[in-house]
Structures are given as structure tokens and as C-alpha cells.
Specification:
40% of the residues are buried. It is built from nine helices and twelve strands. It has a domain of 211 residues: Metallo-beta-lactamase, Chain A, CATH 3.60.15. With 314 residues, the protein is α/β, with parallel strands linked by helices.
Length: 314
């Protein structure tokens, strides 16, 4: 009888322990729930930060000016408020402006979560692209495309645009915006903070890899190398480049990336002249050994880029 009582007590204690542990599990651990959106901060200067986040999308820059905060790119849907929350831990100044480097959802979707009073600035072609939000070439759509700006009655859409160059603010607060031509899309803006010697390049320089050439938004595999080279030649006094998705780079890295894209174009052009098919090129091209530190080419990205260039060379 005593053994039965002891066994019963042990079973009861064990059940209670399991119940307590289950109760203490964080909400994100439950099946089907998303993990928390954690924003990580890289401090580049006393008033310039890069915000990253696993699953968040493109790199966000936060520039703290005299009278307010300028945000460059706002990540995927649902990341606008986490960005705003993180900014509050960096400064008490309000966000007054968003600059979007291009149209893709992982760089613009957070716009809709910012106050409607925030000024939104893009290249003129990016504003046109944001009106339709066409799926990017080479990216498999996840369900039917949804224009996040139409769903939100136009909130977060650009309020100002530029064509070739625009300067915002003055003195240490000045920001220079440049457009050097087609590449990743037809509206890739380069955002320069002259007083800090830093530039945000967006996804036209997402990192050391094959670029995504978004033909649906007029990206160009024929022109991207020249566009990158023009940026490297034109912009002066920049030490640090914030890339679209990778770590910070230098102007020498940008010059190398321009050369890489020009060489890729030459290889594809020569193969096409030799009568090779898109599949043959995609199955035989390999990353040149001299480009150390470059990510291995993803087969789908490689084939898509070859196809874009073949179509442009027709």
C-alpha cells in the first residue's frame, strides 16, 4: 500500500512539473506562431546606425539629424513598428523622413507602419514601380501578389521624387541622393551622408554575389556593371558603403563589384555569340577564382540572370 501511495505522489508531481513547464513556454514556441522580430544594431557613427533583423529583409540605415531621424529602407511587412521601437532606444527625436532605395517589398513594406506625417523620398521610377509592386524577376511569388500600399490606402507611398540628383538638408545634416542608371531595378537610389563619409547602396550592391536582375522592374544585366562603375567614379570622399543585405563594404569593393558584373556580361555575351543556350551557360559558368569571398552562385539566380542578359541582347 505504501508503494502505491509513493508512486501516486511521484506521478502527480511529475504531471504538475510538466504543466508548469508548458505554461512557461514563450508564445513564439507555439506551433504556427512567428518568432519575435528582433532588430539588431550596428553603430557606424554617433548618429548613424544600421538595423538588421533575421527575416526582416534589407539593411535599414538610421541617420539622426539635428531636428529628426531619417530612415533608409523599412524592411518586410510587419517590421516598421519594430524599427520605430528600436529607434526610440537610440534617440528621442522623431522620424521625419524615409528614403527607399528601390521598390522591393523587403525594403519598402515597413513604410505603412510609420506615421502618415513622415516624408517619403524615392527615385521617380521607384515611385512608379511602387504603384504596381510587380513581383521581382527570378523570385518565386508566395501566393498572389498584394500591393501593400493599395491595401493601406496609399499610406507610405513617396511624397517626393528625384531624377538624377537631389540634396536634402544642409551642413552636417545634408544627404545627397544619386541615380546612376539601371541595374538591380530602374530606380536604384544611392544615399550619401557626406559629413560621415558613408553611402547606402541598397540592392544594386547587396553584397559580393550575383545580383538579382529584376527585369519586371526594368533591371539590366547589360547596364549594371557600367552603373556600378559610374557610382564608384562619381561619388567622392566615402569610406564606408552600407550594402543591401551584407556587411559594410568599401569603395574598392564597389569598384571590384563593377568589374565582376562587367566580366559576367562579357562571358554571357561571348557564350551567346558562340550559339550556346541559356541552360548551357548556366550549367557551365563558375565563379572566377580571383573573386575571393564571393558567394557561390545560386543555380536559379544564375539561370535567371543569364536569361535576362540573353533577352536584352536580342
Amino acid at each position: 500500500m505504501r508503494r502505491v501511495v509513493i508512486l501516486f505522489v511521484l506521478l502527480a508531481v511529475g504531471s504538475l512539473s510538466l504543466a508548469v513547464r508548458a505554461y512557461q513556454q514563450p508564445p513564439a514556441a507555439a506551433a504556427g506562431q512567428q518568432a519575435p522580430k528582433v532588430v539588431e544594431v550596428d553603430k557606424l557613427k554617433d548618429n548613424l546606425f544600421v538595423l538588421r533583423g533575421n527575416g526582416g529583409g534589407g539593411n535599414t540605415a538610421v541617420f539622426v539629424g539635428t531636428n529628426g531621424v531619417v530612415v533608409v529602407d523599412t524592411k518586410n511587412p510587419g517590421w516598421g513598428q519594430p524599427i520605430l521601437d528600436k529607434i526610440k532606444s537610440l534617440t528621442s527625436k522623431p522620424v521625419t523622413m524615409i528614403i527607399n532605395t528601390h521598390t522591393h517589398g523587403d525594403h519598402v513594406s515597413g513604410n505603412v507602419e510609420f506615421p502618415a506625417t513622415v516624408d517619403v523620398v524615392t527615385h521617380e521610377n521607384t515611385k512608379t514601380n511602387m504603384e504596381t509592386m510587380a513581383p521581382a524577376t527570378g523570385v518565386t511569388p508566395q501566393g498572389p501578389p498584394t500591393n501593400i500600399f493599395k491595401v493601406n490606402n496609399g499610406k507610405g507611398m513617396p511624397t517626393r521624387t528625384f531624377k538624377d540628383k537631389m540634396s536634402l538638408g544642409s551642413g552636417n545634416d545634408r544627404i545627397d541622393l544619386y541615380y546612376f542608371g539601371r541595374g538591380h531595378t530602374n530606380g536604384d537610389a544611392w544615399v550619401v551622408f557626406p559629413a560621415l563619409r558613408v553611402m547606402h547602396a541598397g540592392d544594386i550592391f547587396s553584397g559580393k554575389n550575383l545580383p538579382l536582375l529584376d527585369a519586371n522592374n526594368q533591371g539590366s544585366g547589360v547596364l549594371i556593371g557600367d552603373t556600378l562603375a559610374k557610382a564608384a567614379k562619381t561619388v567622392k570622399n566615402v569610406d564606408t558603403i552600407i550594402t543591401g543585405h551584407s556587411t559594410q563594404m568599401t569603395m574598392n569593393d564597389l569598384r571590384e563589384y563593377a568589374a565582376f558584373n562587367r566580366e559576367f556580361l562579357a562571358a554571357v555575351r561571348d557564350a551567346k555569340k558562340a550559339g550556346k543556350s541559356v541552360d548551357e551557360v548556366a550549367n557551365t559558368w563558375t565563379m572566377p577564382a580571383k573573386y575571393t569571398g564571393y558567394a557561390a552562385a545560386q543555380p536559379a539566380r544564375l539561370k535567371a540572370n543569364v536569361q535576362v542578359i540573353f533577352d536584352e541582347l536580342k
